[in-house]
Amino acid sequence: MRKISIIIPAHNEERNISYMVSELQKLFSDINYTYECIFVDDGSTDNTLNEIKVQHEMHHHVYFIELSRNFGKDRALQAGIEFANGDAVITIDADMQHPPRLIIEMIRLWESGYDVVYTYREKANEHVKSFQKVASKLFYKGVNMLSEIQMEDGIADFRLIDKKVVAELKQINEYDIFFRGMIKWVGFKQKGIPYTPAARFSGEASYSIYKLFKLALNSTMSFSVRPLYAATFIGLIFSLSSLLYIPYILISHFFGLIAVSGWASLIATVAFFGGLQLFVLGIIGMYLGKLFMQAKQRPNYIVRTTNLLGIPEELSA
């Protein structure tokens, strides 16, 4: 039988673990596949890891990877993908907002020849606050406008990836990895399917407006240099606009219309162009900062303990 690896990043999800394992067990009891369930504990401060270990004692196909601290969801996914050895890998959130029954449709499309089967929200998530809906919509519009990849509004980290795509992903070593964009970038034969998010089984979402804004900047700059082009274009426009002062100066000189400059207009002009210069320098600085962090070649995550593939639980990375 073909094997499916289920990767589940978990950060403070102690009350969702047992329910997720139970739902997956019911699902795979109806289909002719073996599977492994790999939870990646991303620096949880609650009882998440112990809950996973309890499930491992009860179910031989449940495994865990404990990271040394909170590295972020995408790096937790990267850790799980690095350890997975199934014919296909499925990534899914631990909060049960991604409906596990959709895995059957994913596998069917995979068996029909698709290398990547990803999901996107059919409509806005009714289980989140209004400002989160607006922020999410602006996030995808901004990324699509400024980067060279196009993502559906509400594309999720709920996807199936064939092992040959996984092999390519394992070769990519980027400091700021963004899997939703990376999956689009690698290509292969892909199919998107819509889904309707369910309510969280337990807990609350940890994404804030600040984190979403930071993610938007990192993801845009990871796949495009368009912000640099935009900064250059803005600078060129304002430089050309300054030439409009020449006719005004000549007319004022010959007709004696030159007046003493006022402090208000001078300060406003200096503040505006000073702010514009800082904005452009900030964009350049962020790209240089990404190059600096990439040049350090630090690992994207550090595994503290794991029970995968016969590796001892105490594993120093």
From TrEMBL:
Coiled coil region boundaries: none
Keywords, ordered alphabetically: Membrane, Transmembrane, Transmembrane helix
InterPro entries noted in UniProt: Glyco_trans_2-like (IPR001173), Glycosyltransferase_2 (IPR050256), Nucleotide-diphossugar_trans (IPR029044)
Which Pfam families does the record cross-reference, listed alphabetically?
A: Glycos_transf_2
Q: SUPFAM superfamilies recorded for this chain?
A: Nucleotide-diphospho-sugar transferases (SSF53448)
The organism's place on the tree of life at top rank: Bacteria
Q: Where are the transmembrane segments?
A: 228-251, 263-288
Glycosyltransferase 2-like domain mapped to chain residues = 5-168
Keyword Membrane in annotation: yes
Gene3D superfamilies per UniProt: Spore Coat Polysaccharide Biosynthesis Protein SpsA, Chain A (3.90.550.10)
Output the PANTHER family linked to this UniProt entry.
GLYCOSYLTRANSFERASE CSBB-RELATED, UNDECAPRENYL-PHOSPHATE 4-DEOXY-4-FORMAMIDO-L-ARABINOSE TRANSFERASE-RELATED
Protein known as: Glycosyltransferase family 2 protein
